[in-house]
Amino acid sequence: MSTETPDLPDEVAERVRNVRVEDEMEQSYIDYAMSVIAGRALPDVRDGLKPVHRRILYAMHRSGVTSGSSHRKSSNIVGDTMGDFHPHGDKSIYDALARMAQGFSMRYPLVDGQGNFGSVDGDPPAAMRYTEARMAPIAEELLEDIDKDTVDFSSNYDDRLQEPDVLPAAFPNLLVNGSSGIAVGMSTNIPPHNLGEVVDATIELIDNPDATVEDLMEHVKGPDFPTGANIVGRDAIYSAYKTGRGRIRVRAEFEVQEWKNNRERIIITELPFQANKARMVERIADDVNEGKIEGISDLRDESDRDGIRIVIELKRGANSEVVKNQLLENHLEKTFGIINLSLVDGQPKVLSLKETLEEYVSHRREVVRRRSEYDLAEAEDRAHILEGRLKAVENAEDVVDLIRNSETRSDAKDALRETYDFSADQAEHIVRMQLGSLTSMEAAEIKSEYEDVQAEIERLTTILESEQELLEVIKEELREIKAEYADDRRTSIVEDEGTVTHEDLIPEEEVVVVMTEDDYVKRMPIEQFDPQGRGGKGIIGADVKDEDRVATVFRANTHDYLLCFTNQGQVYQLKTYEIPEMGRTARGKSAVNILDLDGGEDITAIVDTDALGDDEYVTMVTRNGYVKRTAGDEFDNIRSTGIIAADLESGDELVDVEVTDGTQDLVIATEDGMTIRFDEGDVRAMGRNARGVNGIKLEGDDAVAGLVATDEGDEQALLTVTRNGYGKRTPLSEYRTQSRYGKGLIDIKTDGRNGPVTAVKAVSEDDQLVLMSERGQIMRTHVDDISTVGRNTMGVIVMEVDDGDAVASVDDVPAATTATEDDATAAED
Q: What is the pTM assigned to this prediction?
């Protein structure tokens, strides 16, 4: 393609410039960005208004739609604004008009609306043809004296009219009503404040220009939202006022009430600013239905025109503190990000509280100065006229004769100027006077008015000559605004005492956790099960439904963090108290509401993370005899959906997990009664995605039943329990150390009455056991009731199980735990 410049006529060629397209695009985008910043999105620091709001108010002022007039159709106001000043579409204008009429959006609404202007439920305003509006009284204070040359005017978009660049603003509207907006590359979010507090701070700054933000905060306590609620903590407020940026927490106002039938309910009466009430209620209901919030029986929105009222009824026995804090964490508390960005001399700038007030005082100083100059000129003109009238009254007869003897009005004026040295304005006024103005009473009134005007001239001259007098005028007018419009603070500021967590409200206690094959889970205090002698049947520990069976039972502390390993090699993290506490005869709660388990995934082993030190390992064994060790720190960050603990081959399952320190021996037991003991060091540490190495050779259909870790000089015994309720203790010293991946030694006979091995544990003589059958029978017994015998024996009855039932799971309760329980019982006695 040719790059030669085409031949153009000279007059055209003179107007053509060669520019680089990237330079033109850059400059054009900057121009566009600044147009959006200055012309649409950001408020002016002086009057706190964006152009659209300023133009709406000025259009209403020009049309006489003031607080004293009747309401006018919103469509009429929007049409006037769009046609004369703001050619950006009626929707944007009406949205701005509607917001200025919303008591839940504006701390001091600038528009008095009649009709549906939206609601806190997020309902949009009715169409502009249905609603009516007029200026609110306080909005007139923003426009006061605008016709006295107090502000600059510019041509409107089509040069037909003049519009104000800024309004006189008799109060600091930017802080009082706040503002929000998104420009190109920047945004503003200024909260509303209490008018009385802002006025007091402004007066403080006028009296003490060296006042600090801390001094001003003696008056401005913090944002004051139209919807009330509470600001949590003062540090964030100070940071925002000091730097112009900050994040404050706004919390709903609510109370917990005693209700009928020994139940409680939570009544919410104020919401955080800009919260959507209907959406909040819907989300609370969703969390209740999904089990994320427990203890709520009913939720109602009883709000009306008089205010907010949301009623949350709690179930009998529900912990109101727990429910309250769950609601606070997810629904009743919002963060308000303060960005005090506004236009200063047409440029965006982030301002502190003091800088914002300084800019406003500077603006008002200019407004009062220009107004005083305007009023002084008017007063001097009036005084000049009155001087002429007084002279005319003093020479009334001669003036009347002079005018009567003149042929024309023009001759009369010339004669007056020549005879009495009147000015043109005075002569013009005198020839237009009525004869009645020459009476003695009228003369007295003229003299009185002249004295008043002279006093006004003196006052205005003093204001213009004295900075202190000018500031006194500003202060007095601010006090009048405060007296007329100020009200009580709506938003309270509460100290941040920290949120009481769910854990803080849960007592520390030892519990038994039961899980079934159909993934129903619950916890019960271990004290519910008194120790029995061996051979007992126990008591009902779970109501297991048809075709479901107990899969595992384990002991834990309510405050323990647990790593839950599943048969499919996944691991999940769980806090014990997150498992619902239920009675012995309850089935439990579906685990899918607590853990994100896949279909066919069952928890087979539990590890308390308190046992995981820096140099500890998680050692796992699978059903097919594979064993692996993984460093404990690889389980520090576990997603809610779980992470891989072991990569299992097809048909294999994770069976048991132990925490080891790298120096221990491992004992693997099989369902057919075989055991092998080998040095932990024979299994190298490997990552979570590894399968592991062979730990024991299995014969026939044999499978691994469990894993035990022991020390070389360990005085503990190996407890073995079979499906039919038989078991034995054998000193671990009788299991000699071998090389990994051997057949091992016979531990217990599994033929006949015993059945296959269910579990193996390393126990001490003072420990206790918790055994549970597949049908939900649970039994707690002392270890020392079980005989200590050698390997390759039958053992004794530990738990009696009915026909068709079997021991499903066994866990041990260490001596230290049982001692603590005994001490607690003694203390209660």
A: 0.65
